[in-house]
Amino acid sequence: MKSLISEILAPCGNWDMVKASVRAGTDAIYLGTKEFSARAYAENFTVEDVKEVVKYCHLRNVKVYVTLNTLIKQSEIHKAIDYVNRLYNIDIDALIVQDIGLAYLVNKLFPDLNLHESTQMNINNLNGALIAKELGFKRIVLARETDLEELKNIRKNCDIEIEVFIHGSLCVCQSGQCLMSSLNGDRSANRGRCAQPCRKDYKIILDNETINSKLSYLSPKDLCTIDNVEEIAKYCDSLKIEGRMKSKEYVYSIVKSYREKLDKGKYDYYLDEVKNRGFTKGLINNTNGCNYVELGRKNQIKGNTIGKVLGKGKIKFTEDVFKKDILILSNGKNTFPLTLTENYTKNSIASFKNICDALENSDVKRVSHIKIVEESAEEKNVEFDLQVKFICR
Fold first, then answer.
1. Is it the case that residue 388 has pLDDT exceeding 60?
2. What is the rounded distance in angstroms from the CA atom of residue 117 to the CA atom of residue 134?
3. Are residues 50 and 128 in the same domain?
């Protein structure tokens, strides 16, 4: 069942992600092509691919937004306009744009094409929203630095659609203003080629003396707003998930979780069972400092606790687990995996020969949920509601 409030907007970097997000219950998807995308290293689509994606999604009542969210060089203007024309002719639902000059031209040449302002334009207050409306944008994608109070202010005082990031990777730099990748990696983040220098480890040096060990001081945790997404949804039109370079399992799990939270008030799919850097509630919820960055290992699957080691090679399960689920156990120094060969129910106790080194009373975590893997790849038939009228003459 579709939520009656904000749409869920899912990231798609390939066909598998398109199908997985639709199966999970998304209302809309966004994707990039091999031209002018801020995710130049994603698999991406050709324009012909997008044509097929649009057909697939529109048959299932899902909208398709296409990104053109890089800065455009003067020498590229004609090529960019030709690209927009090709997208316009395949019935996309909106174009996401960063370059303000290109936005002006698109609005003049394609007045009935919905323009969405990219988060890279760094709109984070009411004045920015009002200017975007004057420029002809139908929707603004707010910078991730915008807090909930300012979101409410924009909603109250500007008649424009609002899109807000609710989940996924974060950038340590102000949205759309990062030059760090160009400086350190000779790759422009504003041209879709971020080298991710903020994810690296750094030393802190004061007066030529190293005062701390190498850690990822600049690497933000991943945004997760599922605890208060209903409140955020009251003040925006679209809830956006980051992750065009992630997997089909990732997009299925995240979309399914937020879909169930919005529609039912609870969710059964575990966000910790897909890759993440630990979670922060983000600047939208005024979370910063040590609660915003992860200093240790990054981009790991944290896992969801599903049991306890009882000792002597036994596990007591606190959740239902399934054949082919992958679990992680600890011996106190290192972790090691265990792939299940059968199903076990909640509160059951099972013995395993190969976990005798596991630390007694330690948590057992699931890092791969076979239900997510299988459901994200499952094809379902589409039911169409056709109304036929017979006219007698």
1. no
2. 12
3. yes
